[in-house]
Structures are given as structure tokens and as C-alpha cells.
Amino acid sequence: MNFDTKHILKWGIPGWYLIINIVVAVSSLIGYEWITDSGYLTPSIIITLAGVPLGYVIYQPYFFVSTLMYENKGNQWNILLFKMSDETKRLFLSNRYGYFLNNIHGYGSLISAVIISLIYLIVLAFIHEFNTEIFMLIIMNIVLVVIVSFNFKHYQKNFENFINQIIRELKKDINR
């Protein structure tokens, strides 16, 4: 995948997920007849395209919080990587680092979208009637937040193990 496709998916999936939850929840209250009305085709396309910028906006609070939590974690890694003389190994480690970080941020922004969807659905359920479709969406979002959180923690743990192992090896190589 090229750069643009990665970012469209990274930011689009959380945005589209939130939009789908909102559309299904609102449709469960007002009815699904609007879907067959051709007058809603253009607004539907616009809403679909809005998923990418919406996902980007959803990504920002997650990124802010993760930056605060892990502010100085990468400094030692970057310094040691810079000192590495083997260009092939440095490129491999840099790509692997990027892979882990990209997945962690992807899961983090998806968790943000699911939590926002969950809050929206709960508020909607209390303001309007608490119907079966909204209840099922709430259950689905709770299950999804658990699954995505598990995957997030798994990648985070593997990322930290990767970094710690490489730092130990690089320190050994530098001290020789």
C-alpha cells in the first residue's frame, strides 16, 4: 500500500465505523425508508466521504493522550538507531518500528471511534426509546471495544518487547 492508501484506511475506518453506528441508530428510530429514496444518494455519498476527515479528527485525541503517556519512550531508541552502522539492519528495524507503531495507532483510533459510538448510542437510548436495534448496537460496541483493546494491548506489549530487545542488543554492540 502506498502512503495515501494507508492513511485513508487508518483514518477512514474509525470515521466510517462511527458514521455507520449513527446511521443505523437514527434509522432504527425514524425508519429505513429513506434508504430507498433516491434523493438521499448524494448526501449519503458526501457522508461516506466525510468518514476520512472524521476519522482523522477521532485520531487526534487518541494521539494527544498517547503522546502524553509515552513522551520520552522513543528518544533512547532513536539515538541508538542513529548510532547503528549497519544500514540494512537499521532500515529493517526502522520499518519494523513503523509497522508496530502504525498498528498501535490504528487500534487506538478505532478504540476511540468505538467508545464515541458507544457514548452516542447510550445517550440516544436514554433520550429516545430504547429499542432492540440500539440495544444490539450497544452490545456489539461493548464486545468490539473489548476485542480491539485486547489487540491494542497485544501489539503494545510486542512493540515494547521489540524495543527493549533491540536496545539491549544495540547497547551490547556499542560497548564492544
Task: Explain this structure.
The protein has one domain. By secondary structure, it is mainly alpha-helical. The protein is 86% helix and 0% strand. It has six helices and no strands. Helix 1 (3-30) packs across helix 3, helix 1 packs parallel to helix 5 and helix 3 crosses helix 5.
Give a summary of the structure in a few sentences:
The protein has 176 residues and is mainly alpha-helical. The chain contains six helices and no strands.
How does the SSE layout of this entry go?
Blueprint: H1 3-30, H2 41-49, H3 51-69, H4 73-83, H5 87-127, H6 132-175
Helix pairs in contact: 1-3, 1-5, 3-5, 4-6, 5-6
Indicate the percent of residues in helices. over 70%
Number of helices: 6
State the order of secondary-structure elements, H for helix, E for strand.
HHHHHH
| Number of strand segments | 0
- Mean residue pLDDT: 84
- Strand portion, in percent? under 5%
Major β-sheet annotation: none
Our Rg estimate from Cα atoms comes to: 21 Å
* Overall number of structural domains: 1
Structural class by sheet pairing and helices: mainly alpha
The span between the termini is 39 Å
Query: What's the overall geometry?
Result: elongated
The low-confidence parts are none
Which terms would index this structure?
mainly alpha, 86% helix, membrane, transmembrane helix, transmembrane
